[in-house]
Amino acid sequence: MSTIRLEHIAHRFGKRRVLDDIDLDIEQSEFLIVLGASGCGKTTLLNLIAGLLTPESGRILFSGRDVTAQDVSRRNVAYVFQDYALYPHMTVEENIRFPLENMKWSKASMEVQVEETLERLHLADVRGQIPAQLSGGQKQRVAIGRALVRDPAVFLFDEPLSNLDPQLRDHLQVELKHLHRQLGKTFVYVTHDAHSAMVLGDRVAFLSGGRIRQVASPAALYREPAALEIARFFGFPPFNVLEQQGLNQLFQEPIPKTAVKAGIRSEHVRILPDETGICQVLWVQSLGDRTFATVSLGGVSLCGVCEYSDLREGERVAVHIDKNNMMYFDEEDFRITDC
Ligand SMILES: Nc1ncnc2c1ncn2[C@@H]1O[C@H](COP(=O)(O)OP(=O)(O)OP(=O)(O)O)[C@@H](O)[C@H]1O
Protein backbone atom coordinates (compact mmCIF):
# COMPACT_ATOMS: atom_id res chain seq x y z
CA MET A 1 0.00 0.00 0.00
CA SER A 2 1.32 3.43 -0.89
CA THR A 3 1.99 5.95 1.88
CA ILE A 4 0.15 8.72 0.12
CA ARG A 5 -2.50 8.50 -2.55
CA LEU A 6 -3.96 11.46 -4.39
CA GLU A 7 -7.21 10.68 -6.19
CA HIS A 8 -8.66 13.07 -8.79
CA ILE A 9 -7.39 16.11 -6.95
CA ALA A 10 -8.43 19.50 -8.31
CA HIS A 11 -7.74 22.89 -6.83
CA ARG A 12 -8.47 26.46 -7.81
CA PHE A 13 -7.64 29.92 -6.54
CA GLY A 14 -10.61 32.14 -7.34
CA LYS A 15 -11.55 31.38 -10.92
CA ARG A 16 -8.17 29.98 -11.82
CA ARG A 17 -7.84 26.20 -11.76
CA VAL A 18 -4.28 25.39 -10.73
CA LEU A 19 -4.50 21.60 -10.39
CA ASP A 20 -6.76 19.33 -12.36
CA ASP A 21 -7.50 15.63 -11.93
CA ILE A 22 -4.24 14.75 -10.20
CA ASP A 23 -3.78 11.03 -9.53
CA LEU A 24 -0.57 10.09 -7.79
CA ASP A 25 0.64 7.21 -5.62
CA ILE A 26 3.65 7.94 -3.44
CA GLU A 27 5.25 4.74 -2.19
CA GLN A 28 6.42 4.01 1.34
CA SER A 29 10.02 5.22 1.84
CA GLU A 30 10.48 6.60 -1.65
CA PHE A 31 12.11 9.88 -2.61
CA LEU A 32 9.55 11.38 -4.97
CA ILE A 33 10.31 14.58 -6.86
CA VAL A 34 7.55 16.82 -8.20
CA LEU A 35 9.18 18.66 -11.09
CA GLY A 36 7.78 21.49 -13.19
CA ALA A 37 8.20 25.05 -14.35
CA SER A 38 7.70 27.95 -12.00
CA GLY A 39 4.01 28.57 -11.30
CA CYS A 40 2.81 25.12 -12.46
CA GLY A 41 1.31 24.31 -9.04
CA LYS A 42 4.06 22.38 -7.22
CA THR A 43 3.75 24.25 -3.91
CA THR A 44 -0.03 24.01 -4.10
CA LEU A 45 0.28 20.24 -4.46
CA LEU A 46 2.64 20.05 -1.48
CA ASN A 47 0.31 22.24 0.61
CA LEU A 48 -2.56 19.89 -0.20
CA ILE A 49 -0.51 16.88 0.91
CA ALA A 50 0.49 18.73 4.10
CA GLY A 51 -3.09 19.73 4.91
CA LEU A 52 -2.39 23.45 4.64
CA LEU A 53 -4.98 23.56 1.85
CA THR A 54 -8.14 21.53 1.25
CA PRO A 55 -8.75 20.41 -2.35
CA GLU A 56 -11.74 21.62 -4.29
CA SER A 57 -12.43 17.99 -5.19
CA GLY A 58 -10.77 14.59 -4.90
CA ARG A 59 -9.39 12.60 -1.97
CA ILE A 60 -6.06 12.33 -0.18
CA LEU A 61 -5.27 9.05 1.54
CA PHE A 62 -2.44 8.36 3.99
CA SER A 63 -1.80 4.60 4.29
CA GLY A 64 -5.35 4.00 3.10
CA ARG A 65 -6.90 6.49 5.57
CA ASP A 66 -8.85 9.41 4.11
CA VAL A 67 -7.21 12.59 5.47
CA THR A 68 -8.73 15.05 2.98
CA ALA A 69 -10.56 16.98 5.67
CA GLN A 70 -7.81 16.74 8.32
CA ASP A 71 -5.57 19.69 8.97
CA VAL A 72 -1.78 19.73 9.09
CA SER A 73 -1.51 18.96 12.81
CA ARG A 74 -3.10 15.52 12.33
CA ARG A 75 -1.08 14.28 9.35
CA ASN A 76 2.33 13.57 10.93
CA VAL A 77 4.21 15.36 8.16
CA ALA A 78 7.14 17.75 8.39
CA TYR A 79 7.56 20.62 5.96
CA VAL A 80 10.89 22.19 4.99
CA PHE A 81 10.53 25.55 3.27
CA GLN A 82 12.76 27.26 0.72
CA ASP A 83 13.27 30.30 2.94
CA TYR A 84 14.20 28.22 6.05
CA ALA A 85 11.46 29.83 8.24
CA LEU A 86 13.69 29.74 11.35
CA TYR A 87 12.97 31.71 14.52
CA PRO A 88 15.55 34.51 14.28
CA HIS A 89 15.97 35.11 18.02
CA MET A 90 16.45 31.43 18.91
CA THR A 91 19.74 29.55 18.77
CA VAL A 92 20.23 26.54 16.52
CA GLU A 93 19.57 24.22 19.45
CA GLU A 94 16.44 26.12 20.52
CA ASN A 95 15.10 26.14 16.95
CA ILE A 96 15.49 22.38 16.76
CA ARG A 97 14.06 21.78 20.23
CA PHE A 98 11.02 24.02 19.69
CA PRO A 99 8.74 21.50 17.89
CA LEU A 100 9.29 18.99 20.71
CA GLU A 101 8.46 21.57 23.39
CA ASN A 102 5.27 22.28 21.47
CA MET A 103 4.44 18.58 21.50
CA LYS A 104 5.16 18.49 25.27
CA TRP A 105 7.92 15.86 25.13
CA SER A 106 9.60 15.02 28.43
CA LYS A 107 12.81 16.95 29.08
CA ALA A 108 15.00 13.83 29.06
CA SER A 109 13.74 12.37 25.74
CA MET A 110 13.79 15.86 24.23
CA GLU A 111 17.49 16.26 25.04
CA VAL A 112 18.38 12.86 23.55
CA GLN A 113 16.49 13.62 20.35
CA VAL A 114 17.91 17.15 19.96
CA GLU A 115 21.46 15.90 20.56
CA GLU A 116 21.09 13.15 17.97
CA THR A 117 19.69 15.61 15.42
CA LEU A 118 22.50 18.13 15.99
CA GLU A 119 25.09 15.37 15.49
CA ARG A 120 23.40 13.87 12.46
CA LEU A 121 23.27 17.22 10.68
CA HIS A 122 26.76 18.38 11.76
CA LEU A 123 25.33 21.29 13.74
CA ALA A 124 26.74 20.54 17.18
CA ASP A 125 29.53 23.13 16.79
CA VAL A 126 27.10 25.95 16.00
CA ARG A 127 24.37 24.96 18.50
CA GLY A 128 24.62 28.27 20.37
CA GLN A 129 24.46 30.56 17.33
CA ILE A 130 21.39 32.35 16.05
CA PRO A 131 20.32 32.09 12.36
CA ALA A 132 21.87 35.48 11.42
CA GLN A 133 25.28 34.03 12.33
CA LEU A 134 24.91 31.00 10.04
CA SER A 135 25.69 30.34 6.37
CA GLY A 136 22.85 29.49 3.97
CA GLY A 137 23.78 25.80 4.07
CA GLN A 138 23.79 25.75 7.88
CA LYS A 139 20.41 27.52 8.01
CA GLN A 140 18.95 24.95 5.66
CA ARG A 141 20.39 22.15 7.84
CA VAL A 142 18.69 23.69 10.89
CA ALA A 143 15.41 23.81 8.96
CA ILE A 144 15.86 20.13 8.07
CA GLY A 145 16.80 19.40 11.69
CA ARG A 146 13.63 21.01 12.94
CA ALA A 147 11.64 18.74 10.63
CA LEU A 148 13.69 15.67 11.50
CA VAL A 149 13.53 16.01 15.27
CA ARG A 150 9.81 15.22 15.40
CA ASP A 151 10.37 11.91 13.61
CA PRO A 152 7.46 12.36 11.19
CA ALA A 153 6.28 9.69 8.75
CA VAL A 154 6.57 11.97 5.72
CA PHE A 155 8.92 14.83 4.85
CA LEU A 156 7.79 17.53 2.44
CA PHE A 157 10.43 19.79 0.89
CA ASP A 158 9.60 22.94 -1.06
CA GLU A 159 12.68 23.86 -3.13
CA PRO A 160 14.85 23.77 0.00
CA LEU A 161 18.17 24.21 -1.78
CA SER A 162 17.32 26.79 -4.42
CA ASN A 163 18.73 29.74 -2.44
CA LEU A 164 22.17 28.14 -2.24
CA ASP A 165 25.11 28.41 -4.61
CA PRO A 166 25.65 25.41 -6.93
CA GLN A 167 28.54 23.84 -4.96
CA LEU A 168 26.71 24.01 -1.66
CA ARG A 169 23.52 22.80 -3.30
CA ASP A 170 25.37 19.76 -4.71
CA HIS A 171 26.90 19.04 -1.32
CA LEU A 172 23.57 19.26 0.53
CA GLN A 173 21.91 17.12 -2.12
CA VAL A 174 24.32 14.32 -1.30
CA GLU A 175 23.61 14.80 2.43
CA LEU A 176 19.88 14.74 1.81
CA LYS A 177 20.15 11.54 -0.21
CA HIS A 178 22.15 9.92 2.63
CA LEU A 179 19.63 11.15 5.16
CA HIS A 180 16.82 9.61 3.16
CA ARG A 181 18.62 6.25 3.08
CA GLN A 182 19.34 6.37 6.83
CA LEU A 183 15.82 7.34 7.84
CA GLY A 184 13.90 5.18 5.38
CA LYS A 185 11.05 7.72 5.44
CA THR A 186 8.94 9.02 2.57
CA PHE A 187 10.32 12.23 1.04
CA VAL A 188 8.29 14.43 -1.32
CA TYR A 189 10.43 17.18 -2.79
CA VAL A 190 9.27 19.86 -5.22
CA THR A 191 11.64 21.67 -7.54
CA HIS A 192 11.87 23.36 -10.92
CA ASP A 193 15.47 22.16 -11.22
CA ALA A 194 15.88 19.13 -13.49
CA HIS A 195 19.41 18.58 -12.17
CA SER A 196 18.17 18.19 -8.58
CA ALA A 197 15.42 15.87 -9.82
CA MET A 198 17.97 13.65 -11.56
CA VAL A 199 20.31 13.51 -8.56
CA LEU A 200 17.75 13.05 -5.78
CA GLY A 201 14.69 11.27 -7.05
CA ASP A 202 13.79 7.60 -6.98
CA ARG A 203 10.91 8.72 -9.18
CA VAL A 204 9.95 12.04 -10.69
CA ALA A 205 6.38 13.28 -11.30
CA PHE A 206 6.39 15.91 -14.04
CA LEU A 207 3.70 18.55 -13.50
CA SER A 208 2.53 20.91 -16.22
CA GLY A 209 -0.70 22.70 -17.05
CA GLY A 210 -2.17 21.57 -13.72
CA ARG A 211 -1.71 17.89 -14.55
CA ILE A 212 0.83 15.18 -13.95
CA ARG A 213 2.20 14.36 -17.39
CA GLN A 214 4.55 11.51 -16.52
CA VAL A 215 5.82 9.64 -13.48
CA ALA A 216 9.02 7.67 -13.99
CA SER A 217 12.57 7.18 -12.77
CA PRO A 218 14.88 10.12 -13.59
CA ALA A 219 16.69 7.98 -16.19
CA ALA A 220 13.43 6.96 -17.87
CA LEU A 221 12.20 10.53 -17.93
CA TYR A 222 15.45 11.57 -19.61
CA ARG A 223 15.59 8.71 -22.11
CA GLU A 224 11.91 8.14 -22.73
CA PRO A 225 10.06 11.40 -22.14
CA ALA A 226 6.34 11.18 -22.85
CA ALA A 227 6.26 14.58 -24.51
CA LEU A 228 8.48 17.24 -26.02
CA GLU A 229 8.13 19.63 -23.06
CA ILE A 230 9.56 16.93 -20.77
CA ALA A 231 12.44 16.20 -23.15
CA ARG A 232 13.21 19.91 -23.26
CA PHE A 233 13.20 20.21 -19.48
CA PHE A 234 16.21 17.93 -19.12
CA GLY A 235 19.78 18.24 -20.22
CA PHE A 236 22.33 20.83 -21.13
CA PRO A 237 22.90 22.02 -23.81
CA PRO A 238 19.23 22.20 -24.71
CA PHE A 239 17.48 19.37 -26.53
CA ASN A 240 17.76 19.72 -30.34
CA VAL A 241 14.38 19.95 -32.03
CA LEU A 242 13.96 19.64 -35.79
CA GLU A 243 10.74 20.67 -37.41
CA GLN A 244 9.46 19.32 -40.72
CA GLN A 245 11.96 21.21 -42.90
CA GLY A 246 14.93 19.98 -40.87
CA LEU A 247 13.62 16.45 -40.87
CA ASN A 248 13.40 16.39 -44.65
CA GLN A 249 16.88 17.84 -45.01
CA LEU A 250 18.58 15.44 -42.67
CA PHE A 251 16.81 12.19 -43.37
CA GLN A 252 16.39 10.36 -46.60
CA GLU A 253 15.02 7.26 -44.91
CA PRO A 254 11.37 7.12 -43.83
CA ILE A 255 10.39 8.67 -40.55
CA PRO A 256 7.20 7.72 -38.66
CA LYS A 257 4.14 8.86 -40.61
CA THR A 258 2.69 10.83 -37.72
CA ALA A 259 5.97 12.60 -36.83
CA VAL A 260 5.93 16.37 -37.21
CA LYS A 261 9.03 16.98 -35.10
CA ALA A 262 12.14 15.08 -34.18
CA GLY A 263 14.51 15.66 -31.32
CA ILE A 264 17.94 14.51 -30.27
CA ARG A 265 20.17 15.27 -27.32
CA SER A 266 23.45 16.96 -28.10
CA GLU A 267 25.45 14.01 -26.71
CA HIS A 268 24.09 11.97 -29.60
CA VAL A 269 25.27 14.44 -32.23
CA ARG A 270 28.98 14.39 -33.08
CA ILE A 271 30.67 17.28 -34.82
CA LEU A 272 33.64 16.08 -36.86
CA PRO A 273 36.40 18.00 -38.62
CA ASP A 274 35.77 17.99 -42.37
CA GLU A 275 36.88 20.76 -44.73
CA THR A 276 34.39 19.56 -47.32
CA GLY A 277 31.58 19.21 -44.76
CA ILE A 278 28.26 20.80 -45.57
CA CYS A 279 27.71 22.26 -42.07
CA GLN A 280 29.15 25.46 -40.69
CA VAL A 281 30.01 26.17 -37.06
CA LEU A 282 27.86 28.94 -35.58
CA TRP A 283 29.33 29.00 -32.08
CA VAL A 284 31.36 26.92 -29.68
CA GLN A 285 30.80 26.36 -25.94
CA SER A 286 33.58 24.85 -23.89
CA LEU A 287 32.64 23.32 -20.51
CA GLY A 288 36.22 22.36 -19.70
CA ASP A 289 35.86 18.59 -19.99
CA ARG A 290 33.63 18.73 -23.07
CA THR A 291 33.09 21.11 -25.93
CA PHE A 292 29.81 21.63 -27.72
CA ALA A 293 29.31 23.34 -31.04
CA THR A 294 26.16 24.61 -32.64
CA VAL A 295 26.23 24.19 -36.39
CA SER A 296 23.97 25.23 -39.22
CA LEU A 297 22.78 22.94 -41.93
CA GLY A 298 20.78 25.02 -44.36
CA GLY A 299 18.29 26.80 -42.16
CA VAL A 300 18.51 24.27 -39.33
CA SER A 301 20.78 24.60 -36.30
CA LEU A 302 21.97 21.65 -34.25
CA CYS A 303 24.12 21.39 -31.14
CA GLY A 304 26.54 18.50 -30.76
CA VAL A 305 29.70 17.28 -29.06
CA CYS A 306 32.97 18.32 -30.72
CA GLU A 307 35.72 15.82 -31.26
CA TYR A 308 38.30 18.55 -30.85
CA SER A 309 38.19 21.78 -28.89
CA ASP A 310 39.96 24.31 -31.13
CA LEU A 311 37.02 24.57 -33.48
CA ARG A 312 36.33 28.06 -34.87
CA GLU A 313 33.16 29.81 -35.83
CA GLY A 314 32.56 29.63 -39.58
CA GLU A 315 34.62 26.43 -39.96
CA ARG A 316 33.21 23.62 -42.08
CA VAL A 317 32.40 20.36 -40.33
CA ALA A 318 30.54 17.11 -40.77
CA VAL A 319 27.74 16.06 -38.44
CA HIS A 320 27.07 12.52 -37.35
CA ILE A 321 23.68 11.89 -35.77
CA ASP A 322 23.10 8.71 -33.80
CA LYS A 323 19.70 7.96 -35.25
CA ASN A 324 19.00 5.21 -32.73
CA ASN A 325 18.59 7.95 -30.16
CA MET A 326 16.34 10.13 -32.27
CA MET A 327 12.91 10.83 -30.76
CA TYR A 328 9.84 11.64 -32.82
CA PHE A 329 6.86 13.73 -31.75
CA ASP A 330 3.35 13.96 -33.13
CA GLU A 331 1.16 16.97 -33.80
CA GLU A 332 0.39 17.39 -30.09
CA ASP A 333 4.06 17.04 -29.16
CA PHE A 334 3.62 13.58 -27.64
CA ARG A 335 6.52 11.22 -28.26
CA ILE A 336 5.78 8.47 -30.75
CA THR A 337 6.78 5.24 -29.09
CA ASP A 338 6.11 2.65 -31.81
CA CYS A 339 9.05 3.51 -34.04
N1 LIG B 1 -2.99 31.82 -2.30
C1 LIG B 1 -3.06 32.00 -3.61
N2 LIG B 1 -4.00 32.80 -4.14
C2 LIG B 1 -4.10 32.98 -5.48
N3 LIG B 1 -3.28 32.38 -6.39
C3 LIG B 1 -2.32 31.58 -5.92
C4 LIG B 1 -2.15 31.35 -4.50
N4 LIG B 1 -1.12 30.50 -4.34
C5 LIG B 1 -0.66 30.23 -5.58
N5 LIG B 1 -1.37 30.87 -6.52
C6 LIG B 1 -1.18 30.78 -7.97
O1 LIG B 1 -1.27 29.42 -8.34
C7 LIG B 1 -0.29 29.08 -9.32
C8 LIG B 1 0.56 27.94 -8.80
O2 LIG B 1 1.32 28.42 -7.69
P1 LIG B 1 2.38 27.49 -6.95
O3 LIG B 1 3.04 28.32 -5.92
O4 LIG B 1 1.72 26.24 -6.53
O5 LIG B 1 3.39 27.18 -8.16
P2 LIG B 1 4.87 26.58 -8.11
O6 LIG B 1 4.94 25.59 -9.22
O7 LIG B 1 5.18 26.10 -6.74
O8 LIG B 1 5.74 27.85 -8.46
P3 LIG B 1 7.26 28.23 -8.01
O9 LIG B 1 8.14 27.15 -8.59
O10 LIG B 1 7.47 29.55 -8.67
O11 LIG B 1 7.28 28.29 -6.52
C9 LIG B 1 0.49 30.37 -9.59
O12 LIG B 1 -0.02 30.95 -10.74
C10 LIG B 1 0.21 31.22 -8.38
O13 LIG B 1 0.25 32.57 -8.72
Can you give me a brief rundown of this structure?
This is ABC-type sugar transport system, ATPase component. 27% of the residues lie in helices and 31% in strands.
Structure description:
By secondary structure, this protein is an alpha/beta fold. The chain folds into 2 domains: 2-233, 3-Layer(aba) Sandwich (Rossmann fold); 240-336, OB fold (Dihydrolipoamide Acetyltransferase, E2P) (Beta Barrel), CATH 2.40.50.140. Helices cover 27% and strands 31% of the residues. It has 9 helices and 18 strands. It has helices at 42-50, 92-102, 107-120, 136-148, 166-183, 194-200, 218-223, 228-233, 244-250, and strands at residues 4-13, 16-26, 31-35, 57-62, 65-66, 77-80, 154-158, 186-191, 203-208, 211-216, 240-243, 261-264, 269-273, 279-286, 291-297, 300-306, 316-321, 327-329. It has a 6-stranded mixed β-sheet, sandwiched between helices. Strand 14 and strand 15 form a beta hairpin. Helix 2 packs across helix 3 and helix 2 runs parallel beside helix 4 (136-148). The longest helix has 18 residues, at 166-183. The radius of gyration is 24 Å and the shape is globular. The two termini are 35 Å apart. The model has no long low-confidence stretch (mean pLDDT 90). It binds adenosine-5'-triphosphate. Adenosine-5'-triphosphate binds at residues 13, 18, 36, 38-44, 192.
